[in-house]
Automatic annotation (TrEMBL):
Keywords: NADP, Oxidoreductase
Name used for this protein in its record: Putative aldo-keto reductase 1
Chain segments annotated as coiled-coil in the UniProt record: none
Gene designation per UniProt: AKR1_14
Family annotation (InterPro entries): Aldo-Keto_reductase (IPR050791), NAD(P)_OxRdtase_dom_sf (IPR036812), NADP_OxRdtase_dom (IPR023210)
The keyword Oxidoreductase is annotated on this UniProt entry: yes
Domain NADP-dependent oxidoreductase: residue ranges: 25-70
Gene Ontology terms for molecular function: oxidoreductase activity
Gene3D superfamilies documented for this protein: NADP-dependent oxidoreductase domain (3.20.20.100)
Biological source species: Vitis vinifera
Length: 92
């Protein structure tokens, strides 16, 4: 299928609590990135996957401690920190 036939999808946002915060209605579970299901991906591919999800409007990332102690710090270093430095913090 060529790009001219691709449908542009943007995930809707919902209010989170009563402080004015909004997150995507659909979340992205990060467990599969780090071997929770016995399959892991490279850091480069993980960053690409998360950036793609973010480009579709997904701003709610599930980073449970159950997924391993390194996941939260990895996401902070490679994704969230980068987004803030790229000026995307207003979109998150």
């Amino acid at each position: 299928m060529g790009e001219e036939h691709m449908v542009q999808i943007q995930v809707p946002r919902v209010k989170l609590g009563n402080q004015g915060l909004e997150v995507s209605k659909l979340g992205f579970g990060c467990a599969g990135l780090f071997g929770v299901y016995d399959i892991s991906v490279s850091e480069e591919l993980a960053v690409s996957i998360i950036k793609y999800a973010f480009s579709k409007g997904i701003t709610f990332l599930d980073t449970s401690d159950f997924y391993g102690p390194m996941l939260s710090s990895w996401l902070e270093r490679y994704c969230i920190f980068t987004w803030f430095h790229q000026g995307l913090s207003n979109s998150i």
